[in-house]
Amino acid sequence: GESVGLHLPTLSVQEGDNSIINCAYSNSASDYFIWYKQESGKGPQFIIDIRSNMDKRQGQRVTVLLNKTVKHLSLQIAATQPGDSAVYFCAERIGGSYIPTFGRGTSLIVHP
Amino acid sequence: NAGVTQTPKFQVLKTGQSMTLQCAQDMNHEYMSWYRQDPGMGLRLIHYSVGAGITDQGEVPNGYNVSRSTTEDFPLRLLSAAPSQTSVYFCASSGGQGTRANYGYTFGSGTRLTVV
Prior knowledge:
By secondary structure, chain A is an all-beta fold. Helix content of chain A is about 0%, strand content about 55%. By secondary structure, chain B is mainly β.
């Protein structure tokens, strides 16, 4: 499981800080975006999604922001906890296609 | 409701051997996909299916076959294993088009395959 994080961009934060994980997507025709969390040794887990007709969506402690002008997506985690340590993937789905395309991921390390 | 179930969890194969990775979902999802995950590479799509009897190739299909005879099952076959196929394999399913709540994929826990 820990090998998933090798060579990935890494964000280190202190417990209690807010975390911002960024993702640049590639296709202006993408109409749906998803953030996944993958803990060591487990499969990716759905966190939050957003459609292209929105620029912000909030969940519990998480917010996703979408900037279509610069094709940028971010995931904000409030009051980051050690249990948030994981690899985070963004995924985009091009309108009319069936399957999302995943980015490389960012490793988030939360220090107690 | 088990979600997406993958078996086996771990497997070691010798070069040239064949095997089938099993994937089953009990959510009546239309879409199912197989991904492989290598260090630093993210998730790469191998094959996918949008319904029973329909399959298509993803980004890295060579060396793998799939079939979708039922909605529930989507097995992945390695025809002649090679060391380059050493990876973690994930199966995922989604409710598909028109199912707003399930555009996001549900993933299995993975199969860790080593080819020696």
